[in-house]
Automatic annotation (TrEMBL):
This is Diaminobutyrate--2-oxoglutarate transaminase. NCBIfam families: dat, ectoine_ectB, PRK09264.1. Belongs to the class-III pyridoxal-phosphate-dependent aminotransferase family. GO terms for biological process: ectoine biosynthetic process. Pathway: Amine and polyamine biosynthesis; ectoine biosynthesis; L-ectoine from L-aspartate 4-semialdehyde: step 1/3. Gene3D superfamilies: Aspartate Aminotransferase, domain 1, Type I PLP-dependent aspartate aminotransferase-like (Major domain). Keywords: Aminotransferase, Pyridoxal phosphate, Transferase. Its EC number is 2.6.1.76. InterPro entries: Aminotrans_3, Aminotrans_3_PPA_site, Dat, Ectoine_EctB, PyrdxlP-dep_Trfase, PyrdxlP-dep_Trfase_major, PyrdxlP-dep_Trfase_small. It holds the Pfam family Aminotran_3. It comes from Rhodococcus xishaensis. PROSITE patterns: AA_TRANSFER_CLASS_3 (PS00600). Its cofactor is pyridoxal 5'-phosphate.
Amino acid sequence: MTITTLPDTSIFESLESEVRSYCRNWPAVFDKARGSWLVDESGREYLDFFAGAGALNYGHNNPVLKRALLSYLEGDGITHSLDMSTTAKRRLLETFEDTILRPRGLPYKVQFPGPTGTNAVEAALKLARKVTGRSSIVSFTNAFHGMTLGSLSVTGNAMKRAGAGIPLVHATPMPFDNYLDGSTEDFGWFSRLLDDAGSGLNRPAAVIVETVQGEGGVNVARPEWLRALADLCKERDILLIVDDVQMGCGRTGPFFSFEIAGIEPDIVTVSKSISGYGLPLALTLFKPELDVWSPGEHNGTFRGHNPAFVTAQAALEQYWSDDHLEKAVLAKGELLHRAFDELSRGFRGLSTRGRGLVRGLVFDDASQAGKVAQYAFEHGLLVETAGPQDEVVKLLPPLTIAQDELQHGLGILVDATITVCAGQET
């Protein structure tokens, strides 16, 4: 399918803010969606390798979750409840404990900080500072943690940081794994800065890290690097926050992305696909001894979004009562890896990285990534670009995508890359 005419987007262009972004790369007016597919108002179908930036791990309008949601709404279930107790919240907490926390030996308390990932991160930073009495947070190069001021202060992207309009303080960036091309194999540099009275680095309240940096360009931290970071934090009485907003809920295989490293963060942020259905929901998880909040000290109007509790509970029961989904994600991820590795060996200036079902094609010539994404859109596939120069074509297909759909999307990406990189064959 090649798109030859553009839809009427005049109302969006005249009335909606210039801040809109995804619609500029995908000039379609979408109308319906199911599973791994979206359909625009003219009836054109698009295979979705974007999945709501990772908010739709179980696909669009997942029928199991839809039935649970419709049944709840038809029964006049509570929709909005702030932090009042409801039957929907009870069922979610019981299911979360039974299917996620207890099997993994994780003792976390659960906070509902608000509807989005940045709410979860803000609560995590605030709690870390309250517990330790320290103000500084260590983050990492190319990190992305959200667009509110606290989350933005620990985000690396210069363009997004510039939008704050004020200095972003009390945060110190450090090199992410392999940022220095493998020349730093441990955390000796971090320890030295902490011990050196002349380094200018005060002991931080916490370190916040993504195990795979999605927006930063699909940068994957090695398990041994994550273990070294966790050990350093424990030795120095620094809280470790893992931001699992995009990489959690099975994106890398296991439910939590940090499971591969065998670590137990002090605080974990979860959002995006935790509701299962694309409904707003976020959790901040933390060890019980860190639960020092006073009642109402941190709150928000939409932290009690019960329809999201319902679909979240249904998703946990459907997909996390056994390890079938985890194994399927790892198998599909290996398929993507093999295809991209073969493609990368065929062209100069092309490489690949990723874990599970987050994968990236990395172009030395950043402009080529945008051209591949544009070709893909014109041929019925949605993929985004990521990285500081948008040099990475980033794949986030639904975890439930069928094998033939995955192969179909791969075929489009291979054709796109061959077309764009013609003349660079090895």
